[in-house]
Each structure stands twice: as C-alpha cells, then as structure tokens.
Request: fold
Amino acid sequence: MVRELSGSAAVGSAAAAGPLYGEEAGCVRSGPVVRDLRGRAGRTPRNLTFQEGDLIVVSGLPGSGKSTLIERTVAAPRIDSQDSRDRWALRMPRLLPYAVYRPLVRLAHYAGLRRELRSGGSVVVHDCGTRAWVRRWLAREAARRGRGLHLLLLDVRPDSALAGQRERGRGVSRYAFAHHCRAVGRLIGDAERGRVPVGCASVVLLDRDAASRLRRVGFDAP
Reply:
C-alpha cells in the first residue's frame, strides 16, 4: 500500500492486486498510481519505502542527478550504468574515447542486471528513459514474481541537466541529448496525465528539491 507516514511514504506492489493510495492520503485507487512530489516546498517525504521483491527504475535526463540520488539513498542492490562505466574507465588507456568501449560498458551493465534479477531480490536500476525494452524486461520479471515495478522519474529542466553534465565532466552528444529529452518528456507528460508505462505499478515524480530531501529509497518486508 501507499500511505503517508511521518516524513516517509510507503509504496506497495500493485501486482498484489491490493488498493493503492494516490497523491493525497486517503485517496484510494485500485490501479497503478502516480505520486507527484514536485513543488511541495519542503513537505516531501524523506524516505520512499517499497515492498521486498519489488523493482525500482530511476529515470531522467543525463545530468539530472540519477546516479547521485541512487548513491546517496540506496543501500539495497543497485545496478547503475555509471558504476560499470567507471570500472571500465580504470582499465582503459586514459585518452581512449568512451565511445570506443561503450558497448563493453553496456554489456557489463546488462549482464549485472541479469544476475541481480536471477537472484530474486529487490534491485534499483539506473535507466536513462530512452530504452523502453529495459522497463518491459523489468515489468515481466516483476509480474513473474507477483511483485511491482516502480518508476522514480526525475523532472529536471534540460539546461539544469546540461549544467550537471558539465559539472561531472561527462556529457552526451546534442543528438543523443535531444533523444533523451523527447523520451523523458513523454514519460513526464504521461505521468502528469495520470498514465504510467505498461507494466509499472507506480510512478513517483521528483524535482531537484524533492530528490535532495530524500534520505532513503529502500524495501521493507511485505
């Protein structure tokens, strides 16, 4: 179930067919839920708690703060493509462009995700928002377990995301960034209209302020 707690929010599995609470405490819905935590002026929860066995996808523009959020708040198993990139960068010549070994990074990323899914435990996954097939893969796995797939969606302006890329010294091409903007924009637009991606139990919309207030994204026993 989803319910407002003291400084936290608990998010249950829609796959269990139980009722879910919407954005406001006491508003009961029987299907997938969108929770909008943007623009709440410091009234956002400090913790997001999901049921053990659920899966979480963190999506948003490159530079929006996905890896920072995951690193700061997630203690459970996590699969972040940035971790794979950093590991491979240590093994490669310093001046070798990332584009050369990017296929190896992606292979390592998805191999690690496959291993975590086969373990049967909960996992938090970094996703750029452009690869719908990843969400479909995770949705199938969540359905097989009888659990839920939840999307944490960072809504950050493109100029702020570009500034985040410059700050970390890693960017994407203009073409790739435009593709990300379109894909993430569609996800946000759908969520604002109350629609969630196929197979998802919930979408949680976060702006920079809401994301910065989070201290824990984790799992509790059902």
